[in-house]
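Case study.
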Amino acid sequence: MLADRSVLITGGSSGIGRELVRQFVANGARVLTTARRESALLETIEGLDPDRAFIVPADLGSRTGREIITTEALRIAPIDVVVHAAGILGPKARLADYPEDAWHEVFHINATSVHLLHQALVPLLAPTATIIGLASSVGRVGRGEWGMYAISKAALEGWLEVLADEWEGPVYSVNPGGTATAMRAEAMPDEDPATIPSPADIAPIFLRLARAEPGEPSGSKFDARDFIGADPLAGA
Ligand SMILES: NC(=O)c1ccc[n+]([C@@H]2O[C@H](COP(=O)([O-])OP(=O)(O)OC[C@H]3O[C@@H](n4cnc5c(N)ncnc54)[C@H](OP(=O)(O)O)[C@@H]3O)[C@@H](O)[C@H]2O)c1
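After joint prediction, the assembly is written out as follows.
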């Protein structure tokens, strides 16, 4: 389905990013994935075709980390698809109490680093590469005590809107909705993960968007839950 498409996925050591790496490789893509934890990245690619799955341990938040990623990304260039799945939750706290250090860190990872990585990757991207960002329900409609996480995801969607207007290829913002991952468990410790979709349930929407053809819509915002078992681009 994605034969020989080159894909870069951030946040591949856990949760949604990890599942996307596995499903993209299983569907024929060549995938380079990145996150800080090398051992967790190695777990992600265990059993996958070594000619199609590559890892780069690096911190997206640092210039050095982003340079390491772009240097390694040369091996899959030109890149057809980038999925910006890395993100952090930060503390759940009212704005009045929100710690200043976390304010800066969460914005830096969830918004600024996506922009800076994109800038660094531009020379390696195919001219009509597909760019996918991971949004959040609390970024679309702010919710108390989600603090900078919500604000940074709203900012990320703003960034994706601007990019969609500038970039030749498709740009998509996908809100996974509550999905059973480590981040979700941290955010909602009392929730039974069996009651919400798994990363595997929502991965097909990313696979479909990754093979958008020229002329299919760009700049679109999707709620992954609406498209479990359905084509997000059908009739769009
Ligand atoms: N799960 C949900 O319910 C949900 C809902 C809405 C939106 N989302 C969004 O979906 C995306 C994936 O979330 P998830 O639930 O799969 O989260 P997760 O399991 O916590 O995974 C987050 C990933 O981000 C990576 N990461 C964090 N900081 C990094 C840094 N400084 N440098 C490089 N990599 C970094 C982590 O890797 P390392 O720790 O190894 O660096 C990990 O691979 C996030 O953007 C999240 O905001 C999730």
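Observations recorded in class. The chain has one domain: 6-227. The mean pLDDT is 95. We will return to this complex in the next lecture.
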